[in-house]
Amino acid sequence: MEKTPQGTSVGVDDPYEFAGVCDHLTGEGTCRYAFDHYEHDPEFARERAADDYECPVVDPESEWSWADCPHFRSRNRDRECVRCGLAEKRMAHDDERPLLEEHHLSYARDGETLSHEITIYLCRWCHAKVHNSWARITDDAAPEPEAVAELEGRRSREQSELGFESAAKRYETDDE
Q: What's the predicted TM-score (pTM) here?
């Protein structure tokens, strides 16, 4: 199983199994990285420019995979835990700890620099289990009771905020 630089598990054998399409890929199949960040890797940008910025991974005649691209990045945008399915519930103007945390699936190996960012979301309970034990992301898991209680508490507070209460009544003082 893949490990972090500190030696804890990331919960998968192959991070690319959980990677979606590249964040730099446009809807037309072109590489936005080569166009927008040419100064970071001029050689790569020149190669992509010569091919009209076409992404070689999506070219059906190409042998490239996401792992072959030096600038591949895939960040999950679904706001739910990929292990247990717990959905995020953020309260506006509140500093509560989020229910979901970004979990990185790829790290530098043998002192190499990290070139691919592959991240998913895990609830903080699954995140701890994956890093602190042999739990895997692919385990059949249900949300922890504490996680469900926290989610329901946030939903209750959200529902109570939807009720109308005049500002005069809300900020009424006992001075009168």
A: 0.77
Domain that holds residue 60: 20-71
How many domains in the chain? 2
Q: Judge if 60 and 132 occupy the same domain.
A: no
**Residue 59 and residue 139 in one domain:** no
Q: Which of 115, 126, 91, 98 is nearest to 12 (CA)?
A: 126
CB environment 112-151: b (16+ within 10 A), e (fewer)? eeeebbbbbbbbbbbbebbbeeebbbeeebebbeebeebb
**Taking the mean position of all CA atoms in its chain, how far away is CA 89?**
15
Phi and psi at residue 90, to the nearest 5°:
-100, 140
Q: Are residues 56 and 132 in the same domain?
A: no
Q: What is the pLDDT along the chain (176 residues), one digit of tens a residue?
A: 777 777 777 888 888 888 889 999 999 999 999 989 999 999 999 999 999 999 999 988 889 999 889 899 999 888 899 999 999 988 777 788 899 999 988 766 555 665 688 999 999 999 999 988 888 999 999 999 999 999 999 898 888 877 777 777 777 766 55
Domain presence at residue 100: yes
